[in-house]
Amino acid sequence: MFGLAYNYISGTLPSGIGNLINLELFEMQGNNISGNIPFEIGNLNKMKYLDLGYNELSGQIPESFGNLRLLIKLYLDSNNFRGSIPSSLKNCQILLLLNLSTNNLSGYIPPEIMGLSSLSIYLDLSRNSLIGSLPEEVGKLQNLGELRLNGNRLSQQIPSSIGSCISMEHLYVQDNFFEGPLPSIMSSMRGLQVLNVSNNQLSGQIPKFLESLNLTNLSLSYNDFEGALPTGGVFRSAISTSVVGNKKLCGGLPDFQLPKCYYKESKWTRISGIAKILISTISALVGVACILSLLYFFWFRQNKNASASSSSEDGFLHVSYHNLLKATGGFSSTNLLGMGNFGSVYRGLLDQTQSVVAIKILDLTCEGAPKSFIAECEVLRRIRHRNLVKVLTACSGFDFNGNDFKALVYEFMSNGNLDEWLHPIASQYMERKKLSLLERVNIAIDVACALDYLHHHYEMPIVHCDLKPSNVLLDDEMNGHVGDFGLARFLPEATHKLLVDQSSSVGVKGSFGYVAPEYGTGSAVSTQGDVYSFGVLVLEMFTGKRPIDDMFEDGLDLHRFTKAALADRVEKAIDPILLQEIEELEKRRIIAPEGKNKSWCSIKDCLVLMIEIGITCSFESSKERMDIYDALTKLQGMRKKLLEFIVTV
């Protein structure tokens, strides 16, 4: 057994590694190891668990991996491997898990890999540059629980053999070029819970069998599906199901805001002339009366609600001013959650879903508010991630006085925002428990995950431009969600525009204390600007001090303050609440027995690492800042170390 995961180890793997012939477990993930994997690694024929993920390894994956016939789990994800997937992996006949995601692998998926029937935990080939079709051999993965092929260049139809994957619970094939209909045989995948086929070229009608599956999340967005949207099963919820970007769809429940379906009457069903005369004679008065009543009813409603109805685009905007007025009790101050640069946020109860939501009402008298609304809609209608605040719907219309009205409706976050937890007012200080060390680490990781998705895993980089604690919202389990995309910018490759050329008149101002210094000199919008804000946020989370604290004057700022403390005694900069927690943990003996003597030392190491990450991310020069992916990797490694010493109950 050899484990040195999540450290700062650099250099290359020596060819002498092949001499460790009795090694069964090798963990080196989360370091800075570079270069090629030596061919001699194939000599480790007793290896069962091998993790080299989250490094900087490059070159091709050696064919000698096929010699590791006892291998159970293999992680080579998040490196820079290129070339094709070695077909020799077919020899690993007891492999349960294979993760080759987030590399630069190309070529076709070897049918032999899809034929590894032993795979049962998951197979992850996502975020590479794989081409061609999905091999028919996928049907042999009858024990597989999760398959990730998203973010490649796979094409042609999804093979019908996939219906044999009866144990599969999660299937991700989004962001490829699959075409044609979804195979009807997929109805046999009774265990399927999550299905994401968005951003492909799939066509035909949406299969009715999807209603009968136990799906909790279904994304069919941005394909070419047509016809009537089913109304049963997962299609009962517009939150669990996404169908935006399919312009030929119709029907469905009102929440999807699709046009009605119209069907032409067949000639052979037309009633004969005599029957028409008889029917018209009998029902003339009743029929005409009903028709006139309906016409009048719809005319009356159209005129009554013209001023309050919302506009609809791609099924996205569909609630009215009246709905939101009622949901918030007339925008009552008792439901006011907070106020921002461009408006106010209220707590509301929507009649349509009977769910509690957060409703952001734009103050359109503020300069840039309309552009902020457009920017936020543009971002939020495209992206979806567990650590981003989910937008449920939006409204763009008029109030009862004929004034422009715009609002966004979000998933409600019961624990408010991070700023309220870090700097509670007197009443909140008594009501809420304090943020623990582990909670702060988890929230920092959540925010880093969100930024990593925005910067690296969407079709083009998205820059948030206003990251700060009040824009990090916390759900009932204290998971962090990044919100407020009113200043966000898309950055198409090779077209990073200067601030003065931004299409929005708002300009990327961000918030004082969190905005990257280069923005003040007119530098281009970049993901490194978000990294700066993230660094300041991390320092604030672990020092308990705002970047605009009164103590910061005469050239001293939060970055310099923590950097100086790091060189002296880091505990001078740490939030006293955290220091008190560590002391109480030791008194209550929640520290694991095997780590008791060095618990403070180890926890202090974690605190030092957190501060180092915050400092490195908030350097004045953007070139010196680490990438958010690297920050995320170090945070995850640090959390693992922390959990080794803290026993949670």
TrEMBL record:
Enzyme Commission code: 2.7.11.1
Where ATP is bound, by residue? 360
Q: Which UniProt keywords apply?
A: ATP-binding, Cell membrane, Glycoprotein, Kinase, Leucine-rich repeat, Membrane, Nucleotide-binding, Phosphoprotein, Receptor, Repeat, Serine/threonine-protein kinase, Signal, Transferase, Transmembrane, Transmembrane helix
Membrane topology reported for the UniProt record: Single-pass membrane protein
* InterPro entries with a match to the protein in the record: Kinase-like_dom_sf, Leu-rich_rpt, Leu-rich_rpt_typical-subtyp, LRR_dom_sf, LRR_R13L4/SHOC2-like, Plant_receptor-like_S/T_kinase, Prot_kinase_dom, Protein_kinase_ATP_BS
The main location class comes to membrane
Question: According to its UniProt record, which reaction does this protein catalyse?
Answer: L-seryl-[protein] + ATP = O-phospho-L-seryl-[protein] + ADP + H(+); L-threonyl-[protein] + ATP = O-phospho-L-threonyl-[protein] + ADP + H(+)
| GO CC terms of this entry | plasma membrane
Provide the Protein kinase domain boundaries.
Answer: 331-601
Q: Which domain of life is it from?
A: Eukaryota
Which residue ranges run through the membrane?
Answer: 277-299
For this UniProt entry, the molecular function terms from Gene Ontology, in alphabetical order, are: ATP binding; protein serine/threonine kinase activity
Instruction: Give the UniProt family note.
Output: Belongs to the RLP family.
| Protein name (database record) | non-specific serine/threonine protein kinase
Q: What is the lineage of its organism?
A: Eukaryota, Viridiplantae, Streptophyta, Embryophyta, Tracheophyta
